[in-house]
Amino acid sequence: MSSRPNPVRPRGEPVSLRRLSRQFTAVGVDIPAARLREIADGADATESERLDVGFALLATATLAQDRQASRHRLRRRCLHWLVVSGALLVALNLLACLGFVLCLLVQQAHAY
């Protein structure tokens, strides 16, 4: 067992510092995973590094929220069109049944 503290996400999942470094790079903060591990282990970080890490955490959280909102909108849009398609099929089925019943009634009214 290592004595170093395990960085934890708010949901309780362990954070991969390599993945976190890649996410930081995506928002414009280049900090290697090895340096993030040193900072997580308690090594002294410069004010600039602390500021960069704080910004990168905020930026990645914002991007994650944007992606989640986009997925939620897509899911809602798909559900909407599924409901509309189902209602359209029900309406067409009703029209077909009414047409069939009308044809049967017309045939019975005019016996050959």
Give the SSE map.
Layout: H1 17-26, H2 33-41, H3 47-109
Helix pairs in contact: 1-2, 1-3
Description:
- The structure is a single chain.
- The protein is mainly alpha-helical.
- It has one domain.
- It has 3 helices and no strands.
- The protein has helices spanning 17-26, 33-41, 47-109.
- Helix 1 (17-26) crosses helix 2 and helix 1 packs across helix 3.
- The longest helix has 63 residues, at 47-109.
- The chain is rod-shaped.
Total strands: 0
Distance, first to last CA = 93 Å
Residue-averaged pLDDT? 86
Helix content: over 70%
Shape call: rod-shaped
The structural class is mainly alpha
Order of helices and strands: HHH
- Sheet with most strands: none
Question: Strand portion, in percent?
Answer: under 5%
Rg over CA atoms, rounded to whole Å, is 30 Å
Uncertain segments are: 8-13
Tell me the count of domains.
1
Instruction: Output the number of helix runs.
Output: 3
Quick overview of this protein structure:
This protein is mostly helical and 112 residues long. It has 3 helices and no strands.
